[in-house]
Request: fold
Amino acid sequence: MQDQNQEILFIIIMGGLLALILVGFVVTVLFLYQRKQHRQQQELARLKDEYDQEVLRSQLEIQEATLKNIAQELHDNIGQVLSVVKLSLSVLPLEKEHKAYEPLQHIREVLNKAVFDLADLTKSLHTDRIPQIGLVESIKFDLETLKKTGLMRVNLNVEGKEYRLGEQKEVFIFRIFQELVNNILKHAKATQINIGLNYINDNNFAFSVKDNGVGFSMEEKKGSKNPLNGVGLKSMLNRAKLIGATMVFDSSPGNGTSVVMNLPIPSTIAKD
Reply:
């Protein structure tokens, strides 16, 4: 009887051990399975992010190429036509006493302005000059064109010594600057715009645009179904994301709008 009880106890102990081993095995398998799933999800998320980045990069590259083609077409076709008309008008043998003299002079002046404006537009659309003259000079050029219109006062403040950020980053920042100025002209009803470029910090480049326009409610924008529509922010945010920059918008009704972009600078970028 005692031997039988010992056998039963032995069987119970062995059964318990086997059950513990089985539970441990199942738990281990489940843990390894979940970890593998987590890694797969992380890898899928990484691949999706890389894919989205490549699609976005391709879209922006196509957009950039389109702008360059438009600039070239404007220069080669419309620019040539205006130049031919200008030349034709300049050789007309009209004396000052002729009744058509003053209207013709006015046409010449308008035509001259159109030729210069077209030249400025094609240069603005084309970004090939940025690698040669840099971001600061490219922004100065566009601001000079804006000043000539007399639509608003323009201030540019550059802090620190300019260093190169890389061609793609400078082109994207320049396009962001153009979009911000375009939004101000279309929506802000501003009389002054302040542009800031900060090169003081070797680890971070800062770019800011501020206006004294009508502003808008940040809460209303956040609460709308698509807060990016109507103000042209989506393209800017996409460009900023591609170069690893962040953008912060601050505005309120009657107090204008402020946009600050921060771009971390890798230590590999040489500061000349």
